[in-house]
């Protein structure tokens, strides 16, 4: 919203013995004109995102019988940085296999900003310690790995992505990404020993158990 002071004069059209009025072009009543001086002033709250410009049709009246003159006044409403970037939700959950490739996009963060120009340009960064394992493309918002995941080491990660606009001062908002690491079958079973020895007496039957392997583990 453009914070233009109410009642501040923005244009003076006045001449003696002439009366002025806005005949059309301002259905929302954002501006008014002094009927005697022709001074055009702000009378409503201006919002660039709602209406970026207004074309006023101004009528001047003089004499008896009256004669009329007409002109147009084009007013551009400048944008200010009054909107923060917005994500569709504040928290998202994603699941990633532990063998995910380094540098391949895992998630695309996307925020929108209602402002115009540089005020509406959004850039992304990681705001917490997750940045040593993850990184994000500042322009595209693509989240990627900087090194391999390991389910056996860490099963969950919490990442905070900050979306900030390029306005002055900059406005920002955060997105929390909850990452679940999927376990993959990447470890073969491991025996306690590499070799076992045992003796079986003569005449042993198939129903007897003579040896049982323990602690064959799969991480």
From TrEMBL:
Keywords for the protein's UniProt record, in alphabetical order: Calcium, Cell adhesion, Disulfide bond, EGF-like domain, Glycoprotein, Membrane, Repeat, Transmembrane, Transmembrane helix
Entry membrane topology: Single-pass type I membrane protein
Cellular localization per UniProt: Cell membrane
Cytoplasm recorded as keyword: no
GO molecular function, one term: calcium ion binding
Signal peptide: none
Biological process according to GO: animal organ development; cell differentiation; developmental growth; establishment of planar polarity; establishment or maintenance of cell polarity; homophilic cell adhesion via plasma membrane adhesion molecules; system development
Location, primary (coarse class): membrane
SUPFAM superfamilies named among the record's database cross-references: Cadherin-like
Gene Ontology cellular component list: plasma membrane
Name of protein: Uncharacterized protein
Native source organism of the sequence: Dendroctonus ponderosae (Mountain pine beetle)
């Amino acid at each position: 919203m453009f914070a233009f002071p109410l009642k501040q004069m923005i244009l003076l059209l006045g001449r003696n013995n002439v009366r002025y009025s806005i005949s059309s072009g301002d259905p929302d009543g954002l501006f008014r004109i002094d009927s005697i001086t022709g001074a055009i002033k702000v009378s409503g709250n201006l919002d660039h995102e709602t209406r970026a410009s207004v074309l006023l049709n101004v009528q001047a009246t003089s004499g008896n019988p009256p004669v009329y003159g007409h002109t147009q006044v084009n007013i551009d409403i400048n944008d200010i940085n009054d909107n923060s970037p917005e994500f569709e939700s504040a928290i998202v959950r994603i699941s990633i296999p532990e063998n995910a490739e380094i540098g391949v996009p895992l998630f695309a963060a996307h925020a929108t900003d209602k402002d115009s120009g540089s005020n509406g340009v959004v850039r992304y960064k990681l705001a917490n310690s997750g940045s040593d394992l993850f990184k994000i493309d500042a322009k595209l918002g693509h989240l990627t790995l900087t090194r391999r995941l390991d389910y056996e080491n860490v099963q969950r990660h919490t990442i905070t992505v900050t979306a900030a606009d390029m306005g002055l001062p900059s406005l920002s908002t955060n997105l929390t990404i909850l990452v679940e690491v999927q376990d993959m079958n990447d470890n073969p079973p491991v025996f306690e020993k590499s070799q076992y020895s045992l003796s079986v007496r003569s005449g042993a039957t198939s129903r007897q158990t003579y040896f049982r392997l323990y602690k064959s583990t799969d991480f």
